[in-house]
Design brief:
This protein is α+β, with helices and mostly antiparallel strands. The chain has five helices and eight strands. The protein has a single domain, classed as 2,3-Dihydroxybiphenyl 1,2-Dioxygenase, domain 1 (Roll), CATH 3.10.180.10. An eight-stranded mixed beta sheet has the order 2-3-4-1-5-8-7-6, covered by helices on one side. Helix 4 packs antiparallel against helix 5.
């Protein structure tokens, strides 16, 4: 995955939209679909994140819901930027720099001083919120929903069921 990926926000139809987009552009494909578990916040089994390529350019689509209900990201139909960070130190540095003069939200989302939305995400997040242990994934999702800046160690502890998982 490239480090900075355009991130499209949807209110329930991310998978349908990604399928449409890949049907329009040559050399395009859906590369991964992560689904919500019982911990939500979307309906269990529905697409959470759809990763796809349009003529070689990587994109991500999120069924994040309407922002009117308190969802952390941009409005449906908006574009944001997803930053895949290799280390927690990189998450910490980018979180602080990009949020200066902006707004820290939740689940790794922030709005910069120019009004653009960013999702600052540590490598390995999907191993926990979409991991093979459904109970662990639910615990990690619940922990993530309580965070602003994402903490990969706290998410790992939540996934593994340690009591100190709250961040």
């Amino acid at each position: 995955m490239q480090n900075i990926v355009p991130f499209l926000w949807f209110d329930g139809d991310a998978e349908e939209a990604a399928s449409f987009y890949v049907s329009v552009f040559k050399n395009s494909r859906i590369t991964d679909v992560s689904r919500y578990g019982e911990a939500g916040p979307g309906p269990a089994g529905s697409a959470m994140v759809v990763e796809f390529e349009l003529d070689g350019q990587e994109f991500m689509a999120l069924n994040g819901g309407p922002t009117e209900s308190g969802s952390p990201g941009p409005a449906p139909g908006s574009i944001a930027l997803y930053v895949n960070c290799e280390t927690q130190a990189e998450v910490d540095r980018l979180w602080e720099k990009l949020s200066e003069g902006g707004k820290k939200v939740q689940c790794g989302w922030l709005t910069d001083k120019y009004g653009f939305s960013w999702n600052i995400v540590p490598a390995g997040l999907s191993d926990y919120i979409g991991g093979p242990d459904p109970q662990g994934a639910q615990r990690a999702m619940k922990a993530m929903l309580q965070m602003q800046k994402l903490d990969i160690d706290a998410l790992k502890r939540a996934y593994e069921g340690e009591l100190s998982a709250k961040a």
